[in-house]
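INTERNAL TRANSFER SHEET
From: sequence group
To: structure group
Subject: YdhG-like domain-containing protein

Please process the attached sequence and return the structure record in the designated field. Keep the field labels unchanged so the import script can parse them.
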Amino acid sequence: MTETDTPARLIDRRIAELNDWRGETLARLRALIKKADPDIVEEWKWRGVPVWEHDGIVCTGETYKAAVKMTFAKGASLADPAGLFNSSLDGNTRRAIDVHEGAEIDEEALKALIRAAVALNRSMRARKKK
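Return from structure group:
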């Protein structure tokens, strides 16, 4: 990553390169993440994965042929009353949402999940400081 290749620009580039429903979906998810937490920080990790952080990793945005996957780093510790998590359900830490072409996104439920992930990160950070 060069000085001009900020994480935000790299994510913009990924969205443009996809040039299909996956790019549109990633852009929409990104906008919802920013609406849920305007203080979230965008990162670019692991050779090309968009990552959103606030006091730790909140979620990632991976793109595959048939899905855009939002992986929540501590998703197993989050309540999911709307049942958004539909992937990586067996692990003890992560949970994911696979968004397929044409799928509806419950925007309010997703923003609530993002806010809950940020709150969890903050509480864990506060405990570590004690």
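Handover comment: The domain at 7-129 is CATH 3.90.1150.200 (Aspartate Aminotransferase, domain 1). The helical segments are 7-18, 21-36, 107-129.
Transfer complete.
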